[in-house]
Structures are given as C-alpha cells and as structure tokens.
Design brief:
It is built from 10 helices and 10 strands. It is α/β, with parallel strands linked by helices. The strands form 2 sheets. Strands 6-7-8-3-9-10 form a 6-stranded mixed β-sheet, with helices on both faces. It has a 4-stranded antiparallel β-sheet with strand order 2-1-4-5, covered by helices on one side. The longest helix is centred in the last third of the chain and has 18 residues. The structure holds adenosine-5'-triphosphate (ATP) and magnesium ion. Adenosine-5'-triphosphate binds next to strand 2 and helix 1.
C-alpha cells in the first residue's frame, strides 16, 4: 500500500531524516515517537509533499508519490490529509466553513471567492461534525471553541477530503488530558470504522502504546524501532529517547529533552 524507501532529507549540512524505510501493507494506526529534533515532523511533511525530499522514494498503490507534480501532487495531498498541533483553522470563520475548506482543492477559484458551496457538501460537513460530536457548534466562529473542539473541527476538515491516510503532527500536544483522549479516540475510531491509515507523531510514549497498532521510534533522523507496542521494551524506549533510568512513559519528548540538556549543561561557580 504505502512504501517509504531510504527517504532522506538534509537541510544545509544537517540530516533531518536519514534513510528511513517503512512499509505499510494494510490500514493501520501508527505512532511515531522520538525526542525533539528526531525528524518526526520532517518525515510527515515529506509524506504529504509539503517538504521536498533529498533522496529516496515514497510509493503509494503503485505510484511514486515523490515524483508527482502539479495537479497530481495536489491530488495526493488530498489523499493524505494533515492535522497539526495548532489546529490551523481560520479563527474568525465559522466552524462549518472551516470544514468546507477541506474541499478547496477540488473547487474553482470563483466558487471559493464567493463562498459558494454545493448543498451536498454542506450536509456532508454537518454529518462529519455530528460524527465527531460537535455539530451543535457548526455556526460558531472557530475561535469560540475549546482546543479539543477545534482539533475535532480540523479532523472534520481532513475527513471532508475523504483521505486514504491521515497524518497528524502532535495532534494532542496542546490539549489537556481529557480533550487529548477525546481527540485520540476520534482518530482511532476513524481508523477502525473507515479503514483509513493514521500516522501520528506523538509526544508521549504512553499515548502511542495505548492507541497505536504499531510504533516507530526515531533517533537522529533514523528509524531505530519499528514494531508493536508489546515489542517496545522500556529499555528500547529509553534508547529512543536517549534517557536514563529516571525515564517515565508519561513524560513528553520535550520534558525528556529539557531533562537531559539540564544534566549536560555546564555548572557555573
Ligand atoms: N526548515 C528547516 N530548516 C533547517 N532545519 C530544519 C528545518 N526543519 C527541520 N529542521 C531540522 O531538522 C531536524 C528535525 O526536525 P523535526 O522538526 O523534523 O524534528 P521533530 O522530531 O519533529 O521535533 P519536535 O519533537 O521538536 O517537533 C532538526 O534538527 C531541525 O532543526
Ligand atoms: Mg515536530
């Protein structure tokens, strides 16, 4: 289905993703973990063609994604919708219009300019919001919603594209535990009920274990673990995060990063 072969990205002299290979042969929910700077976002952005790769290849159902240009590239970007930590909604626009934005790449400039949406699309947008439990908020401005609700609007906008893959870059990093759970439950349900593949960068190991069928661990741009949550031992997790015995599964990648940086920081007299 989806194959990533020796995918590499360098920025100047720095290698952000280093010869990463992943093969996905059926719809799955995959969690990518690793400390800050490991290359998780760069990998997702290359998948969605937001960032150009330096070498290697991405293939999906027989097509080379990394070779797509123009309309074919935009079509691919609709096939693998992306969700971000900061939701990326239009704050002053109402919820349903934000969701309808998910159909943008399929519409004419003129229709977009005059905010003309077919009735069928509007009904579908409301149905998707309903499925995510937020239909009652449809007429409100996006900025009036809580973070968890806004992230569900972003998921609704992604679903509007009817994507085969949903890419989520730290979808719950800005949310409180309760909203984080609601958003992860929604992603899991979309995977199970629709058979869509979900690939999510997650900032805690805990969440990856609880929700994902497969966990991929990155360190310095390389994939250093790829297996089921059961196969991921505490020792391996410690290696992925470069953490010591004080490592805790609930700790976020940023906390682990700050902790290790504090330990190696020079002590001033
Ligand atoms: N546009 C860019 N220009 C230069 N360097 C970049 C750029 N984007 C990422 N990098 C570098 O590539 C490396 C990987 O970054 P990336 O954002 O993919 O890491 P990450 O695992 O997503 O980290 P975080 O957990 O902090 O989000 C880092 O060293 C980063 O500084
Ligand atoms: Mg990132």
């Amino acid at each position: 289905m989806l194959t990533i072969e020796k995918l590499t990205k360098t920025f100047g002299g720095k290698t952000a993703v280093d010869s990463a290979s992943i093969s996905v042969d059926r719809p799955m929910m995959i969690g990518i973990i690793g400390r800050s700077g490991a290359g998780k976002s760069t990998l997702l952005r290359m998948l969605n063609r937001l960032t150009d790769h330096t070498s290697g290849a991405i293939r999906f159902e027989g097509r080379e994604v990394t070779a797509l240009r123009g309309a074919a590239k935009r079509e691919w970007q609709a096939d693998c919708a992306m969700i971000f930590q900061q939701f990326n909604l239009v704050p002053r626009m109402d919820v349903v219009s934000n969701v309808l934005h998910g159909t943008l790449n399929k519409r004419s400039t003129l229709a977009t300019l005059f905010n003309l949406y077919p009735d069928a699309d509007i009904h579908r947008a409301i149905d998707i919001l309903d499925r995510l439990g937020i239909a009652e908020h449809a007429p409100k401005r996006a900025e009036a919603l809580s973070g968890g609700q806004q992230q569900r609007v972003a998921i609704a906008r992604a679903l509007m594209q009817d994507p085969k893959i949903i890419l989520a870059d730290e979808p719950i990093a800005s949310l409180d535990p309760m909203n984080a759970q609601i958003v992860m439950d929604a992603l899991r349900r979309i995977h199970e009920e629709d058979g869509r593949t979900v690939i999510a960068n997650l900032h805690t190991l805990d969440t990856a274990r609880r929700y994902c069928d497969r966990v991929i661990g990155m360190l310095h741009g390389r994939i250093v673990f790829d297996g089921t949550p059961e196969q991921l031992t505490t020792g391996t997790a410690r290696d992925i995060y470069g953490a010591d015995a004080s490592f805790s599964e609930e700790a976020t990648s940023t906390q682990i990063d700050a902790l290790t940086r504090a330990k190696v920081a020079p002590v001033h007299a």
